[in-house]
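Q: Is it fine to ask for two folds in a single conversation?
A: Yes, each is treated on its own. Send the first.
Q: Here.
A: Result:
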Amino acid sequence: MGNGTELGRVRGLGSAKEGAHHWWQQRVTAAANLFLMVWFFVAIVRLPAYDYETVRTWLGSPWAAVPLVLLILSVFYHFRLGLQVLIEDYQHGASRVALMLLLNFFTVGSGAIALFAILKVAFTSTLGVPHV
């Protein structure tokens, strides 16, 4: 079964031309991760305190919540790209398809949970909703 077939694309095998695109996506997300992680560490160090209310107030700002959401999206996508390469290189047949499905579900599910947590804190702190 060739890599350029419809079944090959469904299985994530694609054509040879997709390798460069995948390589660039890994580099772009790595650069974004580096930039956003530096921002995150600097922002955390600059906080006046590390108690819940201080972090909650900080995260209520769009200047904190938006880059943090972008960081989560970039990290999880980069994670998925890297593990996809490992699965494609070392797994074959039905186990490859199963692992790719599992990877996709895990990445989307974990990313969604992280995004939900950030957005919940961000929106509840800006709306003045008391912490329960």
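Q: Second one now.
A: Result:
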Amino acid sequence: MIKGILNFSHHLIEEAVNKGETVIDATCGNGHDTVFLSEVVGEHGHVFGFDIQDAAIKQTQEKLAGHKITNAKIIKDSHSNAIHHLTVDQLTSLGGAIFNLGYLPGSDKGIITKSETTILAIEGILSHLKEDGIIVLVVYHGHPGGDAEKQNILEYTHQLDQKFFRVLKYGFINQKNDPPFIIAIEKKTR
């Protein structure tokens, strides 16, 4: 069966990330991915969630409290600064990251992710990501500014050296209204 976008993004993370590792939710949003990542890494793993919006931080913290999750730290900052919030030990156990690009559902649609900060975040994470680790980007682009971000992210990921990275684009081509798609970057074993 063909997996939907969100199910496939989670499947990719589950295949790459191990218990006890560190993971990044680069765009907390409503907290669903943060909770999912917490379950994937288990009680001895670490989840770092980032967002620039107070509403996203609050929603994610409430969701974590409701699930009694204690292995996640939520930080109000751009994902471009994510690696600066992790210790050396956490950076050396960095198993994966997930991004949901676009805007926070139910919020100000003028506040969107931007390719400049997203690419900085990807570069920082890739420099510390374990071999066989993964970055999953769910690209929502059907909003003002979304097409430019989509194009810039595609151009950036297209030029990643195939000796070191596998880059996958996964999406449905028969859906209307600019359906989201996935870009997954796997760091190859050397």
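Q: Anything structural to flag on that second result?
A: Two points. The two ends are 32 Å apart (CA to CA). The mean pLDDT is 96.
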